Write a sequence for this structure.
């Protein structure tokens, strides 16, 4: 089936098998391997991307369902070579251990800040209920999101 | 994991979707896909055809006009953030806010949720406590089914093979105090036990109470015993304990257990979460 999907601002036309999941479309058709596959069962959140600005799990979405829609992946967050404040905060505060969950954590938390720009620590923890860090490195992840939220309050960014 | 092969049709109208459903015995309806796609990924479902109704925008949205009319394609996130739902039925707001996680709620729909009829799901329990009505459409027209007659068994509903769920009608419960209390499975976020109560107070006395329980049973059910134990009381500790005992007695024979939450534990938690739901309702 012919689809036209905009990913990170660029439109891609592809002829795909309807059973192709969005995460496979991103990784295998477009080579955007920053989006990870973790559990395959919509629990772990490693595959989180933005669909029309909202966080979704790309392992639980067929690529044909998002025909004509806008996707942002972890590769699309940095602008003009400058990391997104969330990426910077994860780097500065070491919001990762093995790093596998990191793209999903960053996409989920940037989507969350769009709905609640100044969350409490407890709210941040609640917002991560769909993202698992198997290393259990949550302390620094939460600290990074808090730091990014504060920075973005001072200098708002697009995403 | 990858789904098996299927033919894919995106329906542009309800009639087109119904025609495809009628003419294709092994077709499944795709809305948000948050029950169906995991089943496809695990090959628990391998339909020959998917009929994608996800773009039928007239099935999406919430109207509050005497009762709440919630289109089948309305997402959990849309219900969770609706001021009208909060005003008409706080327990429904609470229950949908506990479905899955934020990403699941952005895609998962209320119509898909009830059509799938997962016993560990949250919304059915609230819909049952609030005497909701399910709206269906088939080739011969529309019909409505009281939710009490809608859920038949584990993953089994009254939806006929050629019908679509088009909407859910929830009465205005603003003259009741409603609450949904849930013991959440820490990994899957499904309900180990979920209890919804809707109590109508007359001063300090409970005029009547609706009690429904889900998560622990093949399908959500009402608890006539608990409802009788609460009516006419001041909802003091003695009444709550009696209601909890009645609820536990009613479900004991049917309760489902697993390695995480065996039958006896779920039964005990049903009583605990009933009491929590009532206390939350009274505090609301």
């Amino acid at each position: 089936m012919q689809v036209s999907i905009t990913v990170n601002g660029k439109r891609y036309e592809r002829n795909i098998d309807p059973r192709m999941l969005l995460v496979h479309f991103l990784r295998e058709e477009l080579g955007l391997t920053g989006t990870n596959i973790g559990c395959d069962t919509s629990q772990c959140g490693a595959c989180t991307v933005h669909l029309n600005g909202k966080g979704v799990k790309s392992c639980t979405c067929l690529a044909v369902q998002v025909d004509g829609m806008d996707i942002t992946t972890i590769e699309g967050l940095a602008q003009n070579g400058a990391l997104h404040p969330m990426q910077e905060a994860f780097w500065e505060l070491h919001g990762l251990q093995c790093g596998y969950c990191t793209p999903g954590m960053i996409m989920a938390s940037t989507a969350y800040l769009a709905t609640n720009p100044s969350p409490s620590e407890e709210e941040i923890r609640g917002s991560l209920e769909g993202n698992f860090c198997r290393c259990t490195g949550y302390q620094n992840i939460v600290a990074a999101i808090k730091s990014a939220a504060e920075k973005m309050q001072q200098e708002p960014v697009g995403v | 994991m990858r789904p098996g092969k299927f033919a894919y049709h995106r329906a542009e109208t309800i009639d087109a979707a119904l025609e495809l459903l009628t003419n294709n015995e092994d077709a499944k309806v795709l809305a948000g896909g948050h029950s169906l796609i995991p089943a496809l990924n695990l090959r628990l479902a391998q339909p020959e055809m998917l009929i994608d109704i996800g773009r039928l925008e007239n099935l999406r949205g919430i109207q509050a006009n005497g009762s709440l009319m919630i289109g089948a394609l309305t997402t959990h996130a849309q219900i969770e953030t609706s001021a009208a739902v909060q005003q008409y039925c706080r327990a429904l707001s609470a229950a949908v806010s506990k479905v899955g996680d934020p990403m699941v709620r952005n895609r998962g729909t209320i119509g898909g949720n009830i059509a799938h009829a997962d016993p560990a799901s949250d919304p059915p329990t609230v819909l049952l406590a609030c005497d909701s009505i399910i709206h269906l459409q088939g080739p011969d027209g529309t019909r409505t089914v009281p939710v009490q007659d809608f859920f038949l068994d584990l993953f089994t509903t009254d939806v006929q093979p050629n019908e679509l769920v088009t909407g859910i009608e929830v009465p205005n419960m603003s003259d009741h105090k409603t609450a949904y209390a849930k013991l959440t499975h820490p990994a899957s976020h499904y309900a180990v036990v979920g209890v919804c109560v809707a109590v109508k107070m007359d001063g300090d006395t409970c005029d009547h109470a609706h009690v429904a329980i889900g998560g622990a049973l093949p399908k959500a059910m009402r608890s006539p015993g608990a409802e009788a134990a609460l009516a006419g009381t001041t909802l003091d500790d003695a009444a709550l304990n009696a209601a909890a005992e009645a609820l536990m007695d009613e479900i004991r024979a049917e309760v489902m257990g697993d390695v995480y939450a065996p039958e006896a534990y779920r039964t005990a938690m049903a009583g605990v979460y009933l009491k929590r739901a009532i206390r939350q309702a009274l505090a609301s």
